[in-house]
């Protein structure tokens, strides 16, 4: 990635995505609105980010959750993959800028998944009911 984009670590988040060609470009005129698409930028960098994005969707819990959230919101698969590609390039830029290495989150710092959230809320609500009944 550094050979395809030596400016990484010196640019802002939106500029990195635009330079990589991963920022959406909208076509609109007056009241007419077309679809947004990606383009421009550095095509070899976009090509190089595609396969790592697919691997990240399979094995990185946070990026997998982002992908599944976009898919459940009705976005096409390719749009969700491009969003993960953009997230990868933005994260890489931030890490280089801060002179940090990537570290995986521990199990403690992960958020509650939406499928478990209702179960947790149900348990909390039953605890609240018990304390109300126990008080005179």
Characterization of the model:
This protein starts with 12 loop residues before the first helix and ends with a helix. The radius of gyration is 21 Å and the shape is globular. With 136 residues, the protein is mainly α. Mean pLDDT is 82; it is low at 130-136. It has a two-stranded antiparallel sheet. The chain has helices at residues 13-20, 43-59, 61-72, 77-98, 114-134; strands at 28-29, 32-33. It has 5 helices and 2 strands. It is 59% helix and 3% strand. The longest helix has 22 residues, at 77-98.
Unreliable residue runs: 130-136
The share of residues in extended strands comes to under 5%
User: What is the residue-averaged pLDDT?
Assistant: 82
How many strands, what sense, and barrel or not for the largest sheet?
2 strands, antiparallel
Total beta-strand segments: 2
Structural class: mainly alpha
Q: Which H/E pattern describes the elements?
A: HEEHHHH
Strand order of the largest sheet: 1-2
Spatial extent as radius of gyration: 21 Å
> Alpha-carbon distance between the termini?
66 Å
Number of helices: 5
DSSP helix fraction: 55-70%
Overall 3D form: globular
């Amino acid at each position: 990635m550094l050979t395809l984009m030596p400016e990484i670590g010196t640019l802002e988040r939106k500029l990195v995505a635009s330079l990589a060609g991963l920022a959406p470009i909208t076509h609109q005129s007056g009241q007419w609105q077309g679809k947004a698409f990606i383009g421009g930028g550095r095509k070899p960098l976009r090509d190089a980010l595609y396969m790592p994005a697919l691997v990240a969707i399979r094995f990185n819990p946070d990026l997998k959750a982002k992908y599944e959230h976009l898919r459940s919101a009705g976005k096409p698969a390719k749009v969700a993959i491009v969003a993960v590609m953009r997230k990868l390039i933005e994260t890489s830029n931030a890490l280089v800028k801060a002179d940090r290495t990537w570290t995986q989150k521990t199990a403690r710092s992960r958020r509650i998944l939406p499928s478990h959230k209702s179960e947790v809320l149900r348990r909390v609500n039953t605890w609240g009911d018990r304390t109300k009944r126990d008080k005179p």
